[in-house]
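can u do me a favor
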């Protein structure tokens, strides 16, 4: 029912907005397809998206909840989605917006979302961990190759390996490289080559293609089979911009099949040139070292000590001669001092010797027992005494004893 109005009796704005809101919200929810060109994530419950038509320059604002976004999986700007929306009017601003009640990636967006979810699951399990990746052998004896029969990828790998290292041998397994049965055949080929006793590295190669064509190389089963390989695996799928899950789980990712061949075997010509350069550098290093040592030897030979080795002994000989002379003089001085001291000591001993006393005219009297008689009271009249002189002894008989007056008589 329309609202009546005139310039004299206009309708309030709120009435018009509410009437418009009521009319718009009578529309039923509908599924629409569009491309996400902006995702405005907020801390609250309500989130805002900008959805644009895939062909025309038509875009609208879409409000949704965090739960709807999470349920849709990982979404990025540019993803094409199918949204179940219901139009509504925001009363405060009068803006037309759409409430999104369900959101699903569509087309390539759906495939990308599924692959992204699979990547996150495998990454959480550690299948992409760089620490678990194996190093490629420097010079593999036999190389396993998994590719499509007669494909350009097979030709690129074989020709580049043959040109770079002709001695390398290839063990080729032809499989489907797209379609529903491709992943299973590739898994069987990987398992067979991994069990081959001579295969030291495996290359999985395919040329570029659409997202759907490369889906087998993002299969979970193939990723787990490659991760379980004991043989290093090189992924060479598509072009630089293509990144299937196989690239992440393989031990090495090559940008193209040609790049894979370059990574697996060295270039014989480059290695020969490098070897020649290394030999030349080594030879030059040896020549330089010999020249340096020769110069050092020549410098040593020009030193006085090597021209006349005995010259260094002259100074030592002179110092030794001086030391010997000083030692001889010191010994002579010490001997004279000791001789003088000894002479003085002998003279003192001789001066104190009884023999010297006897030589001055004194005598030593001894009784019959050999005891010294030094007092008159020590003998008596008639006793036999012996007088010891400087040149002999005399036998004496005491005929008289006369003590001197100065003799001290001991008190009884």
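np, heres the sequence
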């Amino acid at each position: 029912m329309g609202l009546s109005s005139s310039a004299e009796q206009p309708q309030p704005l709120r009435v018009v907005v509410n009437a418009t809101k009521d009319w718009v919200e009578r529309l039923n929810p509908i599924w629409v397809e569009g491309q996400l060109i902006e995702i405005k994530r907020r801390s609250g419950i309500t989130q805002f998206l900008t959805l644009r038509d895939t062909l025309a320059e038509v875009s609208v604002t879409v409000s949704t909840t965090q739960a709807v976004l999470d349920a849709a999986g990982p979404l990025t700007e540019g993803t094409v989605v199918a949204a179940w929306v219901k139009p509504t009017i925001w009363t405060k601003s009068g803006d037309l917006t759409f409430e999104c009640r369900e959101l699903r990636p569509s087309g390539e967006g759906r495939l990308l979302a599924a692959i992204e979810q699979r990547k996150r699951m495998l990454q959480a399990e550690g299948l992409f961990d760089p620490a678990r990746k194996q190093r490629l052998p420097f010079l593999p004896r036999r190389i396993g190759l998994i590719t499509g029969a007669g494909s350009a990828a097979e030709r690129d790998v074989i020709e580049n390996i043959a040109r770079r290292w002709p001695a390398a041998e290839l063990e080729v397994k032809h499989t489907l490289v797209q379609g529903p049965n491709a992943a299973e055949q590739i898994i069987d080929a990987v398992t067979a080559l991994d069990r081959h006793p001579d295969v030291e590295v495996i290359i999985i190669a395919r040329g570029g293609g659409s997202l759907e064509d490369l889906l087998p190389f993002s299969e979970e089963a193939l990723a787990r089979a490659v991760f379980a390989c004991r043989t290093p695996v090189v992924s060479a799928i598509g072009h630089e911009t293509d990144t299937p899950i196989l690239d992440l789980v393989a031990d090495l990712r090559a940008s193209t099949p040609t790049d894979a061949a370059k990574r697996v075997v060295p270039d014989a010509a480059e290695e020969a040139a490098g070897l020649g350069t290394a030999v030349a550098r080594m030879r030059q290093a040896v020549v330089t070292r010999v020249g340096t040592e020769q110069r050092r030897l020549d410098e040593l030979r020009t030193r006085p000590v090597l021209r006349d080795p005995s010259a260094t002994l002259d100074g030592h000989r002179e110092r030794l001669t001086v030391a010997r002379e000083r030692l001889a003089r010191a010994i002579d001085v010490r001997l004279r001092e000791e001789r003088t001291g000894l002479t003085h000591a002998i003279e003192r001993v001789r001066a104190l010797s009884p023999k010297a006393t006897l030589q001055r005219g004194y005598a030593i009297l001894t009784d019959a027992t050999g005891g010294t008689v030094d007092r008159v009271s020590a003998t008596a009249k008639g006793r036999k005494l012996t007088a010891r002189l400087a040149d002999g002894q005399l036998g004496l008989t005491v005929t008289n004893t006369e003590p001197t007056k100065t003799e001290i008589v001991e008190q009884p």
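Residues 408-412 have pLDDT under 50 and may be disordered. hope that helps!!
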